[in-house]
Amino acid sequence: MIGAEAQFSNFQALDIRVGTIFKVEPFPKARKPALKLWLDFGPDVGVLQSSAQITELYDAEALLDRQVLGIVNFPKKQVADFMSECLVLGVYSEQGVVLLSVERPCKNGDKLG
Fold this sequence. Notes:
Layout: H1 8-12, E1 16-26, E2 35-40, E3 47-52, H2 60-63, E4 67-71, E5 77-79, E6 82-84, E7 87-88, E8 90-92, E9 97-99
Antiparallel strand pairs: 1-2, 1-4, 2-3, 4-7, 5-6, 8-9
């Protein structure tokens, strides 16, 4: 079943960029198992942090230096004692959340679109 129809302007409002994960920490205070991520989104956006519920398929070692896609213009969200500043994108699979990444290396901050 397809969700509600969206206008192209809804998509255009999202600022989706490539970021490189450079720091990962466990997040035991989160209600659901999660990791704290720090990502470099390049000179225009800078470093943002995110709480990500991706522990089924990823650990810190697997995430370091990985380039992923993230929405950088959502409002910040307080998660326990951590401020999540961006939304890392992933797909819900039977095994767990699979992060969306780029096929080949890109510059941090490159935009989807």
